[in-house]
Amino acid sequence: MLITELAETTGTPSATIKYYVREGLLPAGERLNGNRTEYGDAHIHRLRLIRSMLEVGHLSVSSVAQVLAALDDPDAPIAHTFDVAQQALSRAAVPDVSEPTSASIARIDALIGRAGWTGCEDNVGTEIAARVLDAFVHAGYPLPDSYLDAYASAARLAADADLAAVAALPDPSRMAELMVIGTVLGDSLALGLRRIAQAAATSERRLS
Known about the structure:
The protein is mostly helical. It folds into two domains: 1-56, Multidrug-efflux Transporter Regulator, Chain: A, Domain 2 (Orthogonal Bundle), CATH 1.10.1660; 75-207, no CATH class. It contains nine helices and two strands. Strands 1-2 form a two-stranded antiparallel ribbon. Helix 5 (78-93) packs across helix 9 (172-207). The longest helix has 36 residues, at 172-207.
């Protein structure tokens, strides 16, 4: 298909497609005679992946490039690709403000210990969660351990669902891709479902 067809199929303007090619996010099409360039199904798939990360995951173009580079590396283990996606999403979601306090870092470390989690040392999530604790304190609402433990339980259920979906795929390349897109879009899914659950819980409590 030509670029006009690719644009129509994916809902992406031709100028944007050319920009993605220049930035290295999208492979160039096959050059035909004259100024005609042909694109295929792989370009459709990649464009949808790019737009999901940019528009739903709110990643920067440079972060998307890093994630795609890890995804395209045939020698990169899935754990590495997952880590790249986590780092990219974290930079997009957390403003560059003051560092978390040592007290909040210690509380998150203690939470990890209570949950019995291993293999998550130096994970970027520790800093993110600690900053949130500090924000609650500054707002005048310090969180009790029981609140944190409940959130940790919910987070583990979500993480297990993520990994189950990835493990169900037979193709390692698609496993890595789902790991990436699930990381990017999973936070948005969790946000939406949490809003719905809050509304349901509020309604039920008013009826009791």
